[in-house]
Fold this protein.
Amino acid sequence: MTAANILAGPANPGSWQYRQLNARAPGLSYLSDALSALVEDGHLVMAGTADLQYSNGLARFAARHPDRFIQFGISEQNMVSAAAGIATTGVMPFVATFASFLGLLCCEQIRMDVAYSALPVRLIGHHAGIALGFYGTSHHATEDLAIMRSIAGLTVVNPADGPQLAAAIKASADHPEPIYFRIGRGQEPNVYEDLPDFRFGKAIEHETGTDLTIIACGTMVHPSREAVRALRASGLSIGLTDMHTIKPLDRDAVLAAAERSRIILTVEEHNILGGLGGAVAEAMAEAGTKAVLIRHGIRDEYSLVAPPTHLYRHYKLDAAGIETVVRDILA
Amino acid sequence: MPTTATAAPAPDPMGADRTLMPAPLTPEAIAHLEERARHVRLETIRLIAIAKVGHYSSTFSCAELFATLYYDAMRLRHGEPRWPDRDRFLMGKGHAAVGLYPLLADWGFFPKELLDGYTRLGNPLGDHPDMTKVPGVDFSSGSIGHALSAGLGMVMGGRMMGRRFDVYVMLGDGEMQEGQVWEAAMAAAHQKAGNLIAIVDRNGYQLDGQVDEVMGIEPLADKWRAFGWEVHEVDGHDVAALATLFRRLKQDKARDKPVCVIARTLKGKGVGYMEREAGWHLGYLAPEDEAAAIAEIMGQPTGLAILQGDAR
């Protein structure tokens, strides 16, 4: 064993899991490749996971930079606290596990060791929302945005796709605060071309409209865009904003949309309490906008178990479902 | 970050930067460490009198550990709390920070005058230590069970940066009941973190009573050994024994096992009525009790005499 891989549990690119990963979740390669790019640009970064290198695709990073990868085993809390310790030495750690475990199991480690200690740790919660489908409601994360958003000093980002995640990771090299990246399962279609413009806290306006503006985040941007296209094609004036940063919220973008549209509809793969809908509600209420707000997402319930695509259809979180929700509102 | 980092000029207690091995452990050196432990106790009494409530006894049990670490074992540079190659010190039992602050001030990490405002509004020094506010505090604490993981992270980060420093993590014995401690213990052995040194302040008490009655933790040494650690048991009030052990550990650069030092201590050590009274986890001394405690600390030798005496 060389000195370099004492730290690591390097992945075997010839393994079945490794090949499955690349075939089934191509979106996840953006995570590993963006981290590799940081290493290759000379940034002092490390990545770690808790027995999920094939779920989050970090096996790809581990194979390329075994000396920068740490396998923590099934000990998520230890991983988060250790990441904070790593960050004190001038190394920027990225640690990844299921969003459900990160946001709920490690909540106090994130608050105490990462955010309260103001250390530049990057937390990556993957398979957020209902992306783990039939694996169980235990694995669904519909609370993480609400939890993370209430932790002072933590930046909360929910990229729409792999390219935006890669851009956000690149931008994070110069971001002094700790960050929570909330991502999907890597099977979502891309919204953006490679390395789109990205600034923390700066929303992206896709369309403007007077009837209704959808403010979406994360995996909901793509189906919202499809829905908006169909709605606009039928003559409705519908806007769309990608609110990739939940905190700090782009208040100006919210209020601009509320100025133009009669109705704001937030769409998130999360409980409608406390996440994107909650953040937008706070901004609109405090400004006293004339536009009304409707929140769409999981309606404060434990999500059902089924294949993810079936769940998206059931909860009207696919393009057709979002289109129906908008038509019902405007009817 | 608040600007408490501007250290006032202060005399270097050791007269030089401590990048080399210390001088031989002479009787004078031992007496100096004992004096520093007394200083920890006296300052603890003085500071808690400002707050009007505090963890005297949890701090007294580790006064000799503080003294030995900060005046013999650790590589530190006076006035340079962020020197990248310094040894690190973390506290799982953050409630004993009141005993640490005077030593950090003595090292010139922040002005001594800050001690006078301990726990007052606007002062960075609270019952539990905050690394973003107090220069010299290597990690914040307050929620028990996180520190060993954070210390392991420092070892890993230091490894990647090519720096070799030692990381000392002081844990309470009640803290052994936290599951995350054992996650970190397993990971540290797996990572061959030879420069990670956990110190268990085995004072026998936690808030609700005797540790072994609240939730038994024995056989403690066997547990750490079973997790792949090198274990040493020592009288936590014998500064000569502590200094000898920590020097030996520092010299062993080839070690690939993390080390657990189980320090047998007395909660409230140095003040008889605290040693004998389990309820002394959190308290406040009336002026006459305070005077008696100071007199006892000033007049009393430290070491095994108390451990073997009428303490329990």
User: Anything to note?
Assistant: Chain A touches chain B through 33 residues (CB under 8 Å). Residues 1-8 of chain A have pLDDT under 50 and may be disordered. The domain at 4-182 of chain A is CATH 3.40.50.970 (Rossmann fold).
